[in-house]
Amino acid sequence: MAVAAEREYGLFINGELTEPAAGETRELTEPATGEQLARVAMAGDADVDRAVEAARGALAGPWGKTPPSERSRLLHGLADAMVANRKELAELEARSVGKAISSVKAELAQGVENFRFYASTLGSIAGRSNPIGGSLLFYSLKEPVGVVGQIVPWNYPLMMTTWKLAPALAAGCSVVLKPDPATPLSALRIAELAAEVGFPPGVVNIVPGDGPTTGSYLVRHADVDKIAFTGSTETGGEIMRLASSPIKRLILELGGKSPNLVFADSNMADAIPSSVWAIYYAAGQSCEARSRMLVERPLYDEFVSVFADTARRLKVGDPLDPETQVGSLISTSHRDRVHAYVEAGREEGAEIVLGGESADGKGAFYPPTVLANVNHGMRVAQEEIFGPVVTVTPFEDEKEAVRIANDVKYGLMATVWTGDPARGHRLARQIKAGTIGINMPYSAFPGVPFGGYKQSGFGRELGLETLELYLETKSVLFSTSPRPFNPFGL
Ligand code: NAD
Fold it and tell me: Each residue of 338-373: pLDDT tens digit?
């Protein structure tokens, strides 16, 4: 049987794969090999119009009347279909992104759980009622926001698609989702599975295309009610501008430069392998990658040396090999960008303790890299590198650790390693970030709100709060008095 990656993919509009109006298709490249992967249609403005129209039509049709219990059944059905097709989905994702298949399998499992989590929340969609006084009664209705445009990046295409789709569909919205043009395959397959399990046509539409053209057109579209965007802070700013006329509701999940604080009283046996995972998972191409290690001075030299020795043992290579822990980067141009940052760090005085050599060849590989003696004002400590590169900076005491942790424009995630639980909770209040991990490296679970402070964005994903972001609250007022309400006494 031919693997699905060798297929040709159309756009997914109104319940089926379809040709793009302008006929544009693009050959996708496998980042780990430089070989051709699949041919995919790219959406233009006319296709986005068609997708938005289909999404609007779905709201006016049976989907708009689907009761919560049925939406819950459909979400569980989609989760089951993903499990049944997990081998194909995992391989598609690993080959498209260059990511280790062991990581992709974990992300797929989380994506499945995410659909199940939102399927279980549907009973929580409820308004409230209370008497205002006299004969006046108020109650509120929760209604889907409407047609939602969703834009996802290339680093977690499958998981981000589930993060975006699940709460929107649970709330009863219809969706036009634009994946990154380099990694649209898993989103297209999930849409096909959604149709197979019974989501009505038009509820899920997928329009791969470039950001400044297809994405921008979707954000500006007059018949789209809300935009949920995950991507860089720079593009997030542009999305805010584009979504201002006509005004749209917004969720922005943006970049990060997250710190990993290691105190001298921490348990090194836990802190070292977890800190290695927290930066090198997905080859460092994670928004919440703990890319700045801040280490208390007495532990600093030993920590840097043991950390580098541990990271050296990571198995980097073929994404499809089940033993691989770190795959390739997304492209050779991104690899060159990462290397330019490492060179900039070297020029500013950072010491390269591990990695840092640019690899040639067709595969976009870059070695796990450690930059030590980094002053937190350097570019490598302030800007999002988005690759397997960690900076290490010493600190003298808790106060200085918090100051350095907060001294970046981002605020997505922070991890604190300490043997003193009270210190962990103290820092959880002082660090400005959407998620704080105390003695554990993980960041994202279905049910736990995930999102940013500061320039890392606003809105939350994965939590009950997210469902609220896809609902409007409508207040209904009425008089319980049998007499007509007549405030002017006319
Ligand atoms: P990007 O901003 O370049 O692109 C993200 C998406 O936006 C892509 O689909 C792209 O095609 C689209 N896009 C680009 N310009 C657009 C425009 N003008 N109008 C509409 N759409 C446009 O980001 P990227 O480099 O693909 O992704 C990496 C970034 O995403 C990093 O900064 C990372 O931290 C961030 N990220 C954040 C989270 C989070 O949850 N906070 C999760 C994953 C990634």
Answer: 999 999 999 999 999 999 998 777 899 999 999 999
The string of pLDDT tens digits covering residues 467-476 is 999 999 999 9
Q: Which atom of ligand 1 is nearest to the CA of 452?
A: 41
**pLDDT at position 4, please?**
55
Give the integer Cα–Cα distance in Å for 205 and 54.
8
- What pLDDT, on a 0 to 100 scale, did the predictor assign at position 188? 98
Q: How many angstroms from the chain centroid is the CA of residue 239?
A: 16
Superfamily of domain 259-438: Aldehyde Dehydrogenase; Chain A, domain 2 (3.40.309.10)
Contact of 38 with 9, CB cutoff 8 Å: yes
The domain limits of the chain are 4-254+456-475, 259-438
Tell me, in angstroms, the distance from the centre of ligand 1 to residue 173's CA.
22
Active site residue 287: yes
Q: How does residue 134 score in pLDDT terms, banded at 50, 70 and 90?
A: confident
pTM above 0.85, yes or no: yes
pLDDT tens digit sequence for 387-401: 999 999 999 999 999
Q: How far apart are CA 135 and CA 116, in angstroms?
A: 42
What is the full DSSP assignment across 349-395? T-EEEE--PPP-SSS-----EEEES--TTSHHHHS---SSEEEEEEE
Q: Could you say which architecture CATH assigns to the domain 4-254+456-475?
A: 3-Layer(aba) Sandwich (3.40)
CA 180 to chain CA centroid, Å, is: 12
Burial 128-166 (b: 16+ CB within 10 A, else e): eeeeeeeeeeeeeebbbbbbbbbbbbbbbbbbbbbbbbb
Helices then strands (H, E): number in the chain?
Answer: 16, 23
Residue 185's identity, in one-letter code, is L
For ligand 1, say whether the CB of 216 is within 6 Å of any of its atoms: yes
Count of CB atoms situated within 10 Å of the CB of 436: 19
Beta-ladder partners of 128? none
What φ, ψ does residue 388 adopt, rounded to 5°?
A: -80, 60
For 5, 24, 29, 207, 278, the CA distances from 20, given in Å and listed in that order, are 19, 6, 20, 9, 40
Cβ–ligand 1 contact at 383 (below 6 Å): no
d(CA 286, CA 253): 12
Q: Mean of the pLDDT values across residues 172-201?
A: 98
Is-catalytic flag, 173? no
pLDDT of residue 486: 80
The reply to whether 4-254+456-475 and 259-438 are identical in fold is: no
Work out which ligand 1 atom sits closest to the CA atom of 238: 18
Active-site residue, from 30, 91, 93, 253: 253
User: Residue 489's CB: how many other CB atoms inside 10 A?
Assistant: 4
